[in-house]
Amino acid sequence: MIPEALAETGLPASLASAAQSTEFDELIKSSHHEAFDDVGLDVGTPVIRIRGNALFGPVITPAPRGAAAGRLWDGLVLVTEADGFFELKRSRYRKPSFD
């Protein structure tokens, strides 16, 4: 599956070897701990950081593409600018879609 995913995204097939490598394990663990130091422990993943503000999310399915992805990003940037912004949430009503 990995070589096919790399081909579909236009990435070099040589990256497939990273899936079995331990070379980046400590860097990934360090990055993970850094993210949770910023966002807190009462959330899950994904965690993103925008202009120094860490957030859990977005959790969205299916993933937006093109202009819709840009609008979502712009909205995330906007809410991180509000002092004291902490959370938006609603119950999930559909299964993940990877289309």
Write the SSE topology:
Blueprint lengths: L1 H8 L15 H15 L7 E4 L2 E4 L9 H15 L19
Antiparallel strand pairs: 1-2
Short structural description:
With 99 residues, the chain is mainly alpha-helical. It is 38% helix and 8% strand.
Structural class: mainly alpha
- Helix segment count? 3
User: Describe the biggest sheet?
Assistant: 2 strands, antiparallel
Low-confidence stretches: none
* Structural domain count: 2
The dominant shape is globular
Order of strands across the widest beta sheet? 1-2
Total number of strands:
2
Name the average pLDDT: 89
Query: Radius of gyration, rounded?
Result: 16 Å
Strand proportion: 5-15%
Structure in words:
The chain has helices at 2-9, 25-39, 66-80, and strands at 47-50, 53-56. The chain is mainly alpha-helical and 99 residues long. It has two domains: 1-39, no CATH class; 40-99, no CATH class. The chain is globular. It starts with a helix and ends in a 19-residue tail after the last helix.
Main attributes of the structure:
99 residues, mainly alpha
